[in-house]
Amino acid sequence: MKLEVDRVTKRYGATTALDGLSLHLASARVMVLIGPSGGGKSTLLRVLGGLETADEGTVQVNDHRLIADPAALQAYRRQNGFLFQQFNLFPHMSARRNITLPLEKVHGHPPDKALQLAEQALGRFGLLEHADKLPAQLSGGQQQRVGIARAVAFSPEVLFLDEPTSALDPEMTAEVLELIQELAEAGQDIILSTHEMGFARAVADQVAFVAAGKIEEFRPPAELFGAPESALCQRFLSRVMRY
Ligand SMILES: Nc1ncnc2c1ncn2[C@@H]1O[C@H](COP(=O)(O)OP(=O)(O)OP(=O)(O)O)[C@@H](O)[C@H]1O
């Protein structure tokens, strides 16, 4: 994927979440956002995915120039897959129905095609045996895997993952991280925010350190984790890598 983000500002009332942020990415499969809580990772992810619009500045993702036009943004959003930190499955529907419903209602597939795509996605992630279960009957890791299956069932252009493992225990985290790694290896473009530094290092082509609404450092993981240049990034890494 390719990104051209220029001087983007996003405010929520008196809070400036993104503060003239610029980011240029010529080519990468997986871009990972790291940084302190409240630094702007989720906001950047939401702006790049077309879920929010910037107040100022310009955003281009691949060939899509994002503009504040509701219909154009909706069409753009439909090409992307999303998963957030809290499980966002419909609680009263089976895993299978959680996948077929948006394929029918959002993507306009007829029921038989939606079912075929859902079965493919469930099979791909080893979830067929859980297809008839409700979310409450699945572990947190399995729920996130269903969420990812749903997000990739229609082959999205970019998959956006906002702290997909933050609500999971370590074993379930590993399960979900392995799946994300498999997707990346299969060629899926991914932008994700995470607090898992080991995973960021393993899966990212490029890591952006986001703090106070700006990109403080943007480099391949071996460089950023091996020898961070900005003082903020050094301090952040020395704090989070200590434990
Ligand atoms: N919908 C919103 N309404 C008001 N303020 C918001 C909203 N979304 C984000 N903010 C504020 O914008 C700033 C950036 O938040 P953001 O969620 O992007 O940070 P983050 O780096 O993803 O944090 P975390 O790691 O804790 O998820 C914070 O000060 C936050 O409180």
Describe this structure in words.
Residues 3-237 form the ABC transporter domain. GO terms for molecular function: ATP binding. It comes from Luteolibacter arcticus. Keywords: ATP-binding, Nucleotide-binding, Transport. With 243 residues, the chain is of the alpha/beta class. Helices cover 39% and strands 24% of the residues. The strands form two sheets. Strands 6-7-8-3-9-10 form a six-stranded mixed β-sheet, sandwiched between helices. Strands 2-1-4-5 form a four-stranded antiparallel β-sheet, with helices on one face. A hairpin with a 2-residue loop joins β9 (206-211) and β10. It is globular, with a radius of gyration of 18 Å. The protein starts with a strand and ends with a helix. 40% of the residues are buried. The model has no long low-confidence stretch (mean pLDDT 94). It binds adenosine-5'-triphosphate (ATP). The site of adenosine-5'-triphosphate has 11 residues, from β2 and α1.
Explain briefly what this protein structure is.
This protein is an alpha/beta fold and 243 residues long. Helix content is 39%, strand content 24%. Bound molecules: adenosine-5'-triphosphate (ATP).
